[in-house]
Amino acid sequence: MKTCPKCGCECDSEARFCPRDGTALTSAANSMIGQVLMGQFEILEEVGNGATAGERRICSRKE
Fold it and tell me: Fewer CB within 10 Å: N-end or C-end of the chain?
């Protein structure tokens, strides 16, 4: 499943562009970029993707 970052439309995994507005779709993994987990870990980027999980670069925001 992929999501349009502009309108939120959920599309098939094989689609590349939103059928509503033509925006490039993002996978569920990419939609986590920029989120902060547990109030202290910010997801910066996806660095790898395997069969069952993805790897992401994070930054600790704890002071």
Answer: C
